[in-house]
Design brief:
This protein is mainly α. It has a single domain, classed as Arc Repressor Mutant, subunit A, CATH 1.10.10.600.
Length: 64
């Protein structure tokens, strides 16, 4: 799984962190959650604010 696999990442986050409110998460925490997902194999340093915003927005959308 790569940083660009937004929907796959969000599916993993929903499954592993169902109790987490994506609207209240800090980007540093979100980044750590993604890096620790099973199957994540991209360079942790390739994340940026735009990618994290996309992940967070998709997570909020999918959770509702």
């Amino acid at each position: 799984m790569l940083w660009t696999d937004i929907y796959e990442i969000v599916d993993g986050l929903i499954e592993k962190h169902s109790e987490t409110d994506p609207e209240k998460i800090l980007f540093v925490d979100l980044r750590n959650m993604v890096i620790n997902l099973e199957g994540f194999s991209d360079d942790p340093n390739k994340s940026n604010e735009k990618i994290l915003e996309a992940i967070q927005a998709t997570w909020i959308e999918e959770k509702d």
